[in-house]
Amino acid sequence: MTPQVRYEILDGLRGVAAVGVMLFHLSIIDLPLAPHGYLAVDFFFVLSGFVLSHAYAGRLRVMPLSDFMRLRLIRMLPLSVLGLLVGSLYFLMRFYVQNYSQYGLADITIGTLFNAALLPKPWTSPAPTDTIFTTNSPLWSLSLEMLMNIVWAAFFYRARSSILLLLVLVSAISITVLAIENGSADIGATWPTYPGGLARVGFGFFIGVVLWRYRPEPDRGGFLPEIAAVLLIAVLFVPDIGPEFDIFAILVVLPAIIYLAACSDYRKERALFRVAGALSYPLYAIHVPILQFMVGFMKILHLEDRRAFVAMLAVLVCIGIAYALDRLYDRPVRRLLTQAFVR
Question: 225: buried, middle or exposed (CB in 10 Å: 19+, 13-18, 0-12)?
């Protein structure tokens, strides 16, 4: 198997997971549609370990760590910074128009400066839903993913699988304890639950690396892609049934989905899979600020009794903007930054 192998089913599943997160955050409109959408983050962590190993495990033998860091920052920062700016604009408008916001000006402005560097806001605020990424909360997972990328590239990309499995075991125990203590595995976005986020990214990323090391040769036959997709959708949309389900999904089901997808060389709808994969990161980075603006418009236009319509419109707007950002902003900006900063 060569590094040029493209796991196209993973692109499609990444798009499904991003939509699941967006539907989970429709709770902003009081209409959550994916009760376990937060588990898509764990899917992304496993996927990151698998895909980065596929792309960089061989190259890191000759690539300076600084170049690897530049490539990862170029991949993450254009959209994450844009999402933060849009989110900060929302909170600033709310602060000045309503003369009220759950965050003060220092939280919004200085917090955004930290967050723009993918660093968590290093203080807690009295806001009812205070998060370490003040104006675009989902970016907490990108911060931890970037941290884990650097740790892996600096210390563990050549480590024995037994060492990686030990890290996986420690992380799995931590997830189990912290999820039961919290009542769910929706942990990591706040300072009190931050250790849970570290456990989630530690388990997900390193089990993804191990899965890549023992990856099968892709086979075009069978129904494994469909099984993987159905399992992922089931995980995201199953009703809330307690932390035990979260733990089982994170530790068993999500890694199994990645492995099943890696078994598949599925080419019937290549364009659809690639579009879904391309939309996933813009959608993840921008959807919460857009939903917040949609809530504001809903209240201004007095559409509170038409939440289903607003939610449907919000989904279409988020997907449309994500598509435009991928084509017109993210790709050109990353191309320019790569030419300027990467040898």
Answer: buried
Structure tokens at 179: 């999820």
- Average predicted confidence (pLDDT) for the chain: 92
Q: Express each pLDDT in 285-307 by its tens digit.
A: 999 999 999 998 888 888 888 88
Phi-psi region of 222 (alpha: psi -120 to 50; beta: other; left: phi over 0): left
- Of 177 and 104, more confident: 177
Cβ contacts of 27 within 8 Å, gap of 6 or more: none
DSSP summary character for residue 219: B
Give the angle subtended at the CA of 39 by the CAs of 10 and 46, to the nearest 5°: 45
The one-letter code for the residue type at 235 is V
Query: What is the number of other CB atoms lying within 10 angstroms of the CB of residue 318?
Result: 25
End-to-end CA distance of the chain: 27
pLDDT, residue 3, reads 47
Strand partners, 264: 219
Give the 3-state secondary structure of residue 342. Answer: coil
**264 by DSSP, 3-state: which?**
strand
User: Going by C-beta distance under 8 Å and a sequence separation of 6 or more, which residues neighbour residue 98?
Assistant: none
- Answering whether pTM is above 0.90, one says yes
Distance CA 246, CA 250 (A): 6
